[in-house]
Amino acid sequence: MNIEEILDVMDELLDRSWSLPLSGGRCVVDAEKIRDLVDEIRLNLPAEIKQAKGIVSDRTEILSDAKKEAEQTIRKAEERARLLVAQEEITKAAQARASEMISRAQLKSREIRHAAQEFSDSCLQRTEEVIMKSLTEVKATRQAFRNAVSK
Question: Virtual CA dihedral for 59, 62, 63, 69, nearest 10 degrees?
Answer without folding.
Answer: 180
